[in-house]
Amino acid sequence: MNKPPYVLTIACPDRVRTVAAVSSFVAANRGWILEASHHADPLANSFFMRHEILADSLPFGIEVFREKFQIVADEFQMRWKIADSAVKKRVAILVSKQDHCLSDLLYRWRNQEFDFEIVCVISNHPDLRGFVEFHGIPYYHVGVSPGSRDAVFGQIDQLLVRQSSDTIVLARYMQILPAEMCRRYAGQIINIHHSFLPSFCGGRPYQQAYERGVKLIGATCHYVTAELDAGPIIEQDVIRVDHGDSVEDMMRLGRDVEKTVLARGLRYHVQDRVLIHEHKTVVFA
Amino acid sequence: MNKPPYVLTIACPDRVRTVAAVSSFVAANRGWILEASHHADPLANSFFMRHEILADSLPFGIEVFREKFQIVADEFQMRWKIADSAVKKRVAILVSKQDHCLSDLLYRWRNQEFDFEIVCVISNHPDLRGFVEFHGIPYYHVGVSPGSRDAVFGQIDQLLVRQSSDTIVLARYMQILPAEMCRRYAGQIINIHHSFLPSFCGGRPYQQAYERGVKLIGATCHYVTAELDAGPIIEQDVIRVDHGDSVEDMMRLGRDVEKTVLARGLRYHVQDRVLIHEHKTVVFA
Amino acid sequence: MNKPPYVLTIACPDRVRTVAAVSSFVAANRGWILEASHHADPLANSFFMRHEILADSLPFGIEVFREKFQIVADEFQMRWKIADSAVKKRVAILVSKQDHCLSDLLYRWRNQEFDFEIVCVISNHPDLRGFVEFHGIPYYHVGVSPGSRDAVFGQIDQLLVRQSSDTIVLARYMQILPAEMCRRYAGQIINIHHSFLPSFCGGRPYQQAYERGVKLIGATCHYVTAELDAGPIIEQDVIRVDHGDSVEDMMRLGRDVEKTVLARGLRYHVQDRVLIHEHKTVVFA
Amino acid sequence: MNKPPYVLTIACPDRVRTVAAVSSFVAANRGWILEASHHADPLANSFFMRHEILADSLPFGIEVFREKFQIVADEFQMRWKIADSAVKKRVAILVSKQDHCLSDLLYRWRNQEFDFEIVCVISNHPDLRGFVEFHGIPYYHVGVSPGSRDAVFGQIDQLLVRQSSDTIVLARYMQILPAEMCRRYAGQIINIHHSFLPSFCGGRPYQQAYERGVKLIGATCHYVTAELDAGPIIEQDVIRVDHGDSVEDMMRLGRDVEKTVLARGLRYHVQDRVLIHEHKTVVFA
Fold first, then answer.
1. Number of domain units in chain A
2. Which of B111, B248, B253, B257 to mutate to test the interface with D (most CBs of D within 10 A)?
3. Which of B84, B119, B145 is where one domain is finished?
4. A27 confidence band (pLDDT: 50, 70, 90)
5. Domain CATH number, residue D70
6. What is the spatial distance between Cα C87 and Cα C117, in angstroms, rounded to a whole number?
7. What interface predicted TM-score (ipTM) does this complex get?
8. Which residue, of D60, D84, D108, is where some domain finishes?
C-alpha cells in the first residue's frame, strides 16, 4: 500500500512547452504520475493542469518539491499548489433543520468513501445534536435572531478558526453569510442550492419551479461568493417531475438530487479537482 | 385493425362523481376505453381527464357523441373536446437556416412515427427548399427585412389559413411572432427554445450558459404566448457539459436535445395529450 | 388534516364497464377519489387500477367497504385489495456489512419521507448494531456459517413472525434466501441488486461490468423469487462510468444508484403502487 | 483559421517518463498541443495517450513526424499512430430498411457536424435509394438470399475496397457479417445494437426487454468482432420506459437512443478518440 499521492494543480497562461516543463521536472525526479489532466482555454488564453504524483516515488518530501518546482513555476507564470492527500481536508458543516445532506455526508465520512475530516457541525437549531454526537463529532448550536447576525457570525468564525477548518459546507444552511466572510473564505465555502441555477435563485426555489411548471428540477453545488447564488458552479444535476408533483413531491425528489450533487462537489473539492477561474470552475472529475 | 380512437379531453372543477359520470356515459354506450388518465389539482380545485375510446365500439359517430355528451359536460361545468385521431393535425413548420429540428421532424413524418401532416414549411431563408421539396412538401420563402414585419407576418398568416394548418411549429425559427398572432393561435404554436427555461431566455442562450459555467445545458418545448419564452412548458430535457466544452460544443450537444424535446412535445400535442391550465400544462404522456 | 386515504388496487380481465362500475360504486357512496390510475394490457387481456379514496369521505369503514365492494369484484372477476394507508407497512430490513442502503432508509424513516415502520434489522454481522440501536430499532445478529443455513433462516423466520413484518427488504444482504421462504413471502420480499438486470446476475456484478467495459452501470430493485435475480422488476436506474473508473470507483458510484433505486422501489411497495402480474410489475408511480 | 490538427494516439506499458518523453519531443519541435488526454490502467500495466497537435506549429509535415517520433516510440515500446485530421475518414454505411440512424448520420454529414465522408450506402433493400441519392451519395442494393451470403459479402467487400472506405458503419444492418470480414476489418466496423448490452444480445431485443419487464431500455455502439454483440463497447445510453409501453413504444423510444449513441460513437471513432485495448475501449471523449 502506497502513501496517498501528492496533488499538483496549476493555472497559467497557455504557451508552448508548459506540459513538457512540468512532466520533465517530474520525470527528472523519477516521479510516478498516477493521473494527469489538462485543459486549455483558448478564449481566456489559460492553461490548467492537475497531476497526482506517487509520493513514495519522489526522492524528497513536499517542502523540497515546493522549493524546486518554484523555478519552473516562475518561468511559466504559474499559480500553483501542491497538496499532500495524506493530510485530510478539515470540513465544518453548517446546517439548519433539514438533515438529508448532513446525513448523507456523515454516511460517506463513516464509510471513508473519500478522505475528509468533519471537524464540527454548526447549526442555528438544536435538533440534530443527538445524531451528530452519535458520530463523535462536536455539535455547536449557534441560534440566529434578528439583530444578532454580527455576533452570531463572529462566533461561527471563531469556531471555524478554533477547529482549523479549511472547508465550510453549507448543507442546507438557511442563513446568508456576511459578504466579508464570503470574501475571506473565497474558494473554501461550498453551498448546495436547491434549484438548477441560474433558474430560481433566492428563496423557495421548489415553489418557484412549481409555479413555472418546469418538467425537471435540479440542484447546484457552488462556491459561495458575496453575491447570492452567483458563485462558481462545481456540479449540478436534475430529476424529472410532472404535473402530478406537488411542491412537497418536488422537495422529496429534490432532496435526493441535492445530497448527491453536494457529495460529488465536496469530493471534487477535497481531492483538489476543482480549479476556480474567475466565476467559473475547471473540474478534473 | 381498428379505426383510430377518439380522444376525449376534459378540464373541470374537482368534485365527487366526475369520473363516474364520464365512465358511466361511455359504458352506457358500450364504449371501449383504451387508455384513461386523470389528474386532480387540489390547489386549483381542478380536474383533468383524457380518454382514448375505441371509435368502432360506439354505436354512433363523433357528432352524435358531442351532442349527447354535452349534457354530462354541462352538469359538471366541463371545458371539453373530442378529437377523431383518424383526422391528422395539420402542422406548418417555420424554420430559419438551422435544420436539425426540421430534418428530425421530416424523418418522423416520413416514417409515420406518429400521426401528423406537414402541410408546408415556411422559412425566412431559401436554403432548405431542396430538402423539403424532396419530401413533396411545399416550401415558402418569406424573407424578413427591417420594416417588413407586418407584411411578412400577414403573408405567413395567409399561408397558414390557405393550408388550414391547426398547429404551427417554430423549429428554430429565429423571428419573433407578433403578439396578436400569438394570441389568435393560443395553444397552437409550439416553440423549441435552446435553453432549460427559465434560465437563459432571449438570445444566444448557449453563449449565456457558457458564460455562467453551468454543468448541464437543456432545451424547452413550450406553447408560444405574447411574452417571449414565458409560455406553458410542454417538455424539457438536459445534457451534461463540462469546462472543456466551447460554445460550439454546447451548440452541437444541444441540437440533439432540442430535436428530441421538440419531437416529444409535438407528439404530445398532436395526440391531444396536453391540457393547458393557465400558464402551465398537464401532459398525459 | 384528513385521515390518510384508502388505497384500492384491482387486477381483472379487460372488459367494458369496469371503470364505470368501480367509479360508480365509489361515487354512489360519495367517496372522494384523490388519485386514479388505470392500465390496460391488451396482450394479456388484463386491466389494472389503483384508486386513492379519501377515507373521511365514505359513510363507512374499511370492513364495510370490503363487504359491499365484493359484489362488484365478483361480477368483474377482480383480484383486489383495499389498504388503509393509516396502517403503516411493517418492514424488516436484512443487511450484511455494507450500510449505504440501510443508512439511507433509516434517514427516510427518521424524516417520515413516506410512511413505513422499520420493525427490526437483521444482519449476519454485528457491525451495524450501534447505528441501528441509536434509532431505537431492534437489531438481531444472526450469523451464517456453512451448514447452518436451515437453522439460521428458521430463526430469521421466527423474528419476522414475532415482529409481524409484512415486508422484507434485502438491503445488500449477501445471503441467498431459501426457495421455500421466497415462495411463502411472494410479493413481500424486495431486493436491491447492484447491476442493471438482466445484465450481470449473480456475484460481483461491478467486477463483471468492469470486465465487459460497459459505459453505464446500474441497480435493480425487484421482488425476490426462488430463481436468483429473476423476480419482477420494480425500479432501475443507471449512472455513467468510463475507462478511468476502476471496480472500486464503480462500487462508489453504484452505491448512490442502489440506495436511490431501493428507496423508490420500497416507496412504491409500501404505498401499494405496485401490482405484480406474472413475472412483471405494473407500477403506478 | 488553422489547418486541422494532427492526432497522435499512443498505447504503451506504463512507466516513468512516458509523458515527459512525448511532451518534450513535441515541445522541442515547437508543437502546440491543443488537447491532451492520458489514461493509466494499473491492472493492465498500460498507458494510453492522445494529443491534438496544431499542424501549423510544427516545422515539418506528418511523414517527417512519423520518422522522428519512431525513435521515442521504440524506446517506450509504443503502439502508436498519428492521423492528419484534414484527411477525413471514409465511411461506408450498411443499412437495411430502418433509416433512423442513416437519416441522422446524413443530417450530421450534410451539416458538417464533425468531419467524415460518406463514400457509399449499401443495403440489402432498395427502399432508401431515393433519399440517399438526393444527397449525392452512391447507393448500392446488394440483396441477401439464402445461400447467397458468400457472393453477397464478396460483392460488399469489393465495394468497400473500390471506395477506399476505412470505416464501416452498420446502421441497423440486419445481416451478420462473415467472421473473416470482422477479423480483417478489426477496429473499423461499428455497429449499433438496440439494447443495453450485455443484456438482450441477438435478435428482437425490444421484445426481450418487454418480456423481462425492465424499466429502462438502451442502445450500444460497439466494434464488431466475430463473436456476435460481444465486441468492445464505445458508447451506450438508456431511456426510461414503464408498464404502459408496448414493444412498439419501446422501438419508437429506442430509435432516438440508437441514433444518438451511434452518432456519438462514430464521432469518437473518426476523431481517433477511441483506443481499443483487448476487448474494451479507452474513449477520450
1. 2
2. B111
3. B84
4. very high
5. 3.30.70.260
6. 10
7. 0.95
8. D84
